[in-house]
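Fold this sequence, please.
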Amino acid sequence: MHGRRADWTLELLADAMVKLTDHADLSRETVRRRLDENTLKPWRRDMWCIPQIDGAYVARMEDVLDLYAEVADPQRPMVCFDESPTQLIGETRLPIPPTPGQPERQDYEYKRNGTVNLFVFLDAHRRWRKMKVTDHRTAVDYAHCMRDLVDHHYPKAELIRTHTPRAAFRRMGEPVF
């Protein structure tokens, strides 16, 4: 039996389905149509971080859930922060515009134009968000974002929590706040 999804062809799927069901036979086209009807794409896979569930993980999760359950307080804003490295890509050929019954078509080939990092802030209790694009993803960049958050967006807040307090104190060897 094939273990990896990349090893499965429509013919192999048809053969496996015959063995697992009451069907005498299945064509590769029938398998293709069924996968398409159900938007199943066994050759694709999504990747994400699967955490190690231990006591420390559960404690951090409970802290976050407790924080989200708190009542909104303007003196203690709840600002969520995330970061994401992003690849900048460009087209090597112009896309073909859509026509009736035909979507826009893009060539699979692309030109790599480097990378940037996206820092994203969002207030969980009001309609506010901010994004900052930087060339790098370092503790210094993080500290500059926190400084901007405190000085410009929440200057009257008495407390803004961070998930890694030590990152706020690393700005070219000196405390940030």
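Residues 55-69 form the longest helix (15 residues). The CA atoms of residues 78 and 124 lie 6 Å apart.
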